[in-house]
Amino acid sequence: MKNHTKIRTWLLICSLTLLLHACSTPFMASKDDFEVVDRTKPASAPWKFTRTPDLSLTATSQYLVTATQLALEAQATQAAQATATAEVFAIQSTATALARESAIMAYEHFDPFDQNTLNWRVGVEDNPYWQGSTNIEDGFYIWEITAVKETFFTWSDFTPIYDIEDFDVALRVRRVQGEPHQACFGLLFRQSASGIDGGTYILSVCDNGYFKVLYYEVENGLDVLQDWTPTEALHSGEWNLLEISARGEDFTIYINHLQVLTFKDSRLPSGKISILIDHFSETPSLIAFDFFALQQQ
């Protein structure tokens, strides 16, 4: 009969030996000792776990510098594009103006005021309203008002034709002396053959940046079709080109190639055209006209 007590003692000693060996091994392994495998990839290409590093101060600074540089470059690009666009518009505007003035010079009646071939009003002036003179000299039609007795408006007729229906008219004018809001200029159009008492349309322009359009007849007085209206088209103290286009009861007004007004009125189907001086103060002034042009339609 075997001695089972000895066997149990031997087994107990072996178990204790194995337990002591296991306890001598560290309980937790380092994180770096593990290899994490992506099971969606082939076993031959394992992926090891790595910690994402924190963004360093140097990297942050570089990021900010790059972002700032990109923003500055974007602003510079926008500024360059805006400048280029403005230059294109300026070139187009200049080309349009040159083409328009070439067309005006080809009108049926174009007077550069080299001499008084169209019998404009000239000579010494001394009337109940003002003193001065009107002259054509050196290629300009000049109105010089040396003394004002009472505020007034006065005019000089285009005499070759008195019954003008549809037309395009152009006048280049400059205020040389006088207050910009008081020494004004413009055109009378479709003026009655009997004179302004019978009726006329009036365009009055002041190069402080305002214009107005009126209808006048002695029976009913002034009718304001467009009260004083500001426009950036006017150039103070410089040459200004005024244009009126009339087709039946439809009228369009341009200042320096810019359309500033359209209106309808059927009271006068035809009439004269005159150059206008519209004076609102007692301050002396000088107004010069560069050319007058008229095309009947």
The residue-averaged pLDDT reads 83
The largest sheet is:
9 strands, antiparallel
As a whole number of angstroms, the C-alpha radius of gyration is 46 Å
CA(first)-CA(last) distance: 147 Å
Count of helical regions: 2
| Helical proportion, percent range | 10-25%
In sequence order, what are the helices and strands, one letter per element? HHEEEEEEEEEEEEEEE
- The top level CATH class name of the domain at 111-296: Mainly Beta
CATH superfamily of the domain at 111-296: Exo-inulinase, domain 1
CATH level-two architecture of the domain at 111-296: Sandwich
Overall shape: it is elongated
Unreliable stretches, pLDDT < 50, 5 or more residues? Answer: 25-37, 39-53
Strand content: 35-45%
Strand segment tally? 15
- How would you classify the helix and strand content by structural class? alpha+beta
CATH topology of the domain at 111-296: Jelly Rolls
